[in-house]
Amino acid sequence: MEIKRLLITRFSAAGxxxxxxxxxxxxxxxxxxxxxxxLSRENFSPLFYFMPDNVRFWGVNLKCDYDGIKGLNKLFxxxxxxxxxSYADFHDVLRTKFLRLxxxxxxxxxxxxxxxxxxxxxxxxxxxxxxxxxxxxxxxYKDVLTKLGFDVDLNIREVFPKNLPPLPxxxxxxxxxxxxxxVGVAPFAAHKGKILPPETMEKVVKMLSEKGxxxxxxxxxxxxxxxxxKWQNAYANVVSLVxxxxxxxxxxxxxxxxxxxxxxxxxxxxxxxLTSTRVVSVWGATHTKAxxxxxNQKEDDAVQIALPCRPCSVYGNKECRxxxxxxCLMDIQAxxxxxxxxxxx
Length: 345
Fold this sequence. Notes:
Elements: E1 5-9, H1 14-30, E2 35-41, E3 55-60, H2 62-65, H3 68-81, E4 86-89, H4 94-105, E5 109-112, H5 117-126, H6 137-147, H7 169-175, E6 182-186, H8 198-210, E7 214-217, H9 222-234, E8 238-240, H10 248-255, E9 260-264, H11 267-274, E10 279-282, E11 302-303, H12 327-330, H13 334-342
Parallel strand pairs: 1-2, 1-4, 2-3, 4-5, 6-7, 6-9, 7-8, 9-10, 10-11
Helix pairs in contact: 1-6, 1-11, 3-4, 8-13
């Protein structure tokens, strides 16, 4: 049976959803007669704004509108009304397992991601120094499509187009005209094992400023706003965007104009990757070998310390087991990061 309408689901997290975008674009460009519906959380819609015409982003609020079994049954009823031929589950969590099962019994062809849980456990047990690099997450997404009969080539140069809209007025009011190198800094992450000591990252910001770059600080929430505004007030040509950017789309448009983004192993690394912006990524408890390096980013641009205990977890969410806590982060020097930034700008 020829597949004419495909549903893809991935609800979280932001970085994982962003990594779906290159795969979706590659699929849409090759199979121009295929209708693709990408179902995710509504706040991620800007990541898919510049997709080909045969891609539709379907954003939902799961907690408000589709909570619990009753909500999932309601959601599947709406899915079924789309008359999809196949369902690619890029997430494979309880919510999507339920939807996938309903789809299977409705006669819809289904396939799910192989997250490589066993391989990842082995990586954290043996350490990266004794392990080969695992399959990149974007390749795992591609494999789901292969199971459904699609042949997708991920050798695409860009996800967002080069001719993006101009910066909106509210962003220009913060940035001013570009007269120097622009460097983004995203100091935060979801877990402690992925965050540099604040004093190290503050020194990075200070050094970038002293070297003539204009620095834009990215983050979310009151706590992060307090930190970034403190740095903004302390150093010249440093601008905190936290709570001021006007939303994800505006931030993506600004990121596309950066000469470089400095980011932890977090969502901003993947946002920058969609805009073809070079990222100097910083890794602590996690490791590039786990498969989460940004799409088309270079291993040479990753800053990380070679320790036998790394990675101690795939997501950075486990307590450090060393007596000298988070040596993987504590031993990274601000100079290493700044030097890496200016190697190519």
